[in-house]
Write a structure and sequence with these properties.
By secondary structure, this protein is mostly helical. The chain is built from three helices and no strands.
Length: about 70
């Protein structure tokens, strides 16, 4: 039952972990830093941020109208 416990522990549990190897730069022995965060490029993150800002502004304006703090 416990014969190959150390060998089993050293093997990756998932196949994805076994296939993952960070890309090394051509001149250095360290992984290349990617400009992606959450799988998005900087332009995609900017568009998401602008859309979120627009949604917050619209919801805030609607709340001010409903509460009667501003009026037309």
């Amino acid at each position: 039952m416990f014969d190959d416990l150390r060998e089993e522990a050293s093997r990756p549990f998932y196949e994805e972990e076994a296939k993952f190897e960070p890309t090394l730069s051509a001149t250095q022995d360290e992984p290349v830093s990617s400009s992606r965060f959450l799988g998005m490029t900087p332009i995609q993150r900017f568009v998401i941020a602008v859309m979120l800002m627009f949604a917050v502004c619209v919801i805030g304006a609607m709340a001010l109208l409903v509460l009667g703090k501003i009026g037309f």
